[in-house]
Design a protein that fits this description.
This protein has about 70 residues and is an alpha+beta fold. It has one helix at about 45-60, and strands at about 5-10, 20-30, 35-45.
Length: about 70
């Protein structure tokens, strides 16, 4: 069975400044009986997170149901 990675992009509620919006990007693996297992979390500027999103889409990643 192919093990898939998951990525979750979530805005940082503490970054209120329009000029410096921050995003948490979580990576993990799905678990058979529960939420995904969180492997890494990165805090990024919005522009960098958007760039990562488009790169993952170009590589074939798709939108899935929430795992966390």
């Amino acid at each position: 069975m192919l093990q898939a990675w998951l990525a979750r992009f979530q805005g940082d509620p503490k970054s209120r400044w329009v000029r410096d919006q921050r995003v948490f990007v979580d990576h993990g693996r799905p678990m058979p009986d529960g939420p995904a297992l969180l492997k890494t979390r990165r805090e990024m500027r919005f522009e960098a997170a958007a760039s990562l999103w488009f790169q993952l889409k170009r590589l074939g990643w798709t939108v899935a149901e929430a795992a966390w």
